[in-house]
Specification:
The complex is a heterodimer of chains A (249) and B (448). By secondary structure, chain A is of the alpha/beta class. Chain A contains 9 helices and 9 strands. A 6-stranded mixed β-sheet of chain A has the order 5-6-7-3-8-9, with helices on both faces. Chain A has a 3-stranded antiparallel β-sheet with strand order 2-1-4, covered by helices on one side. In chain A, a hairpin with a 2-residue loop joins strand 8 and strand 9 (209-214). Chain B folds into 3 domains: 2-38 and 249-442, no CATH class; 45-150, abc type-2 transporter like fold; 183-234. Chain B has helices spanning 2-13, 16-39, 68-75, 87-95, 109-115, 131-169, 185-198, 205-234, 251-281, 285-289, 295-325, 333-358, 361-379, 388-399, 402-415, 422-442; strands at 45-50, 58-61, 64-67, 80-83, 101-105, 123-126, 171-175, 178-182. The longest helix of chain B is centred in the middle third of the chain and has 39 residues, at 131-169. Classes of the chains: A alpha/beta (249), B alpha/beta (448).
Chain lengths: 249, 448
Amino acid sequence: MPTSVATQRAMPAALAATGLTKRYGERVALREVGFAAAPGELVAVIGPNGAGKTTLLSILAGIQQPEAGEVTRSPREIGWVPQQPAVYSKLSVAENLRLFARLEQVANVKAVVARMLEQTGLADRAGDELGTLSGGNRQRVNIAIGLLAEPPVLLLDEPSASLDPRQRARLWTFIGEQAERGTAVIFSTHDVQEAERYADRVLVLADGELLFAGTAAELAAAVQSSGGEAAGPRDFETAFVQFLRERGH
Amino acid sequence: MRWLLLKDLTILRRSPLLVALLVIYPIAIALLIGFALSRGPGKPTIAIVNEIPRQARSFNVAGSRLNADEYLPELLRSVNVVRARDRAEARRLVKDGKVLGALILPADITQKLATGRQQPTIDVLYNGEDAVKQRYIDSILKARMADANVALSRRFQEATAGYLRLLLDGGSLTVLGRDLHILGLRNAHTITTGAIAALPPRSPLRTSLGQVAQFGQIAIENLGRSRDVLRSVGQPVRVRQTIVGGRRTPLDTFAAAISVTVSLMFLTLLLAAGLLALEREEHAFSRLVRGLVTRLGLLAEKISLAALCAFAVTLVMLIALGGFFIELDWGRFPQWLLALAAGAVAFAALGVAIGGLAREVRAASLLAFLLSLPITFLALVPSGAVSAGLYDVVRAVSALFPFKATLQALDAALNDADVGLWTPLAHLAALAVAYTALARVAVGRRFG
């Protein structure tokens, strides 16, 4: 799925963040984090637990305010997909989409809802209550809601968590289609293999600090060049763990 | 906000159990209170054993003929009577729980009353298995005995007053079948003063008869006052009631105000707390507040919906109570609406504060329920029932919650109570603002 990263980097950024800093009391959750995402680019934010992934995404989404730093887009221009499906289980698929489309004040609610039902492949289940859907389908509706206003940037907080492999594959196909339409997709994940497979670029966060920004191959190469493993790491996950260890995490 | 309101109404419509509970609960409360108020307390059943022989039921008191049967209805007013043959049957009826108590009128009661010197005794039997029942029967019988004693006392007073009148004014008195003529103090005094006037000026008898005439005058004056003294002895204290700090509120209307306030509280608190907590439980809160709706707007929507639903249900409840069970002043209908609306908004604001703090529907509902009970009990503690210091604490705590102010507003709206409508309405408005501010802080926390 990763496409021409060089081409993407040459395009104007769909989203740029600079010097983002966030503290919870004494603890620094984010320390001067900055990066940019190009239109159509898939950016994975990876790191150990407590690294600051969710904090970074919630600041980009406008849910939290940083102590310092700025984001080039307002929250209204960014689609937000929280980790847990933020949908109403007593409402049907169509009702959920219709409600959020109205709240987003989209121009043609009916057409947008029809389009999202088509894109999610849930047109035949439009009248079903969300509570009766599988986790994968709920997550697709969750993402569809984030895309209702056709935002240039889509943020996803661990979108594939708690999905089975088949549901994951369908989800990533759907996300890939959004990226192909030009949406910059930034997602956090614990699954580094998933990041390697689907992301154009990875951001490695640890203890609120951005340690690495580049492709998965570049990260593996960085570990190899530092002499961490004589024959190079066996896979990306091993390279990632080695990378963190080398930097004291 | 319109779309969120519609969404919440749709969710409520699809939760039939919750809606059924929300509708059935206040109706059940209204029906229970309505029936309780309209039927009034049932008459207690008392067994009675009348051991007075038929020929001894009529007796003389100071020359007047009295009949014990005339006083029995006074004694048995407001109770159902079961006639028992003897003491053993009465005891069995009490023990078996078929009657609350038994009253035994002994055979010598009229004989002792006729002497005017001996005090007869009435036996009362009751079951000690239940302290509440025991106290109930005790208070009923004491009240009835007091009434009977007053009625008898009045007859004794009348007889005594007759004697005094005879002593004062003279007349005839029948003793052992013979009529005796009594001269009377006034006549004696007239004769004495006449005799003194007829005596020669220097007669030595003038001084002695003058003393007799003076004594006669004093006796006439004092016996003349004795009737008032007798009346005072029969009923030493009269009661005059004056209502201070509040008008006389009919018990049934006040009970209706309490039942409506309780229903309003439960409905509004549970709805407001649950609806706000649901936004978090469904993880929609963060999505909503990042530009789609402000936090304050979301709180306002929950407050409006919960207050509107509870307002409608409790208004129907109040109309049903007034239409079928109790007498309400329909001319004060606009005041009812004001009181219900203000109470609903204040309770809803408290509800969203609970929902904001609890974050989960179950926790919010439980917290709302647990909070409701003590604030109801505290608000219903009357002044004087506890020590002055403790009452001040109770009053201060009650003032922090909307129950007492809503009850006062409803009481004022229904009964034109002395506290007036505007003071509790202002109190409720202040509470609504304070709780909304608290809720705003609660939903503004991390990952709000």
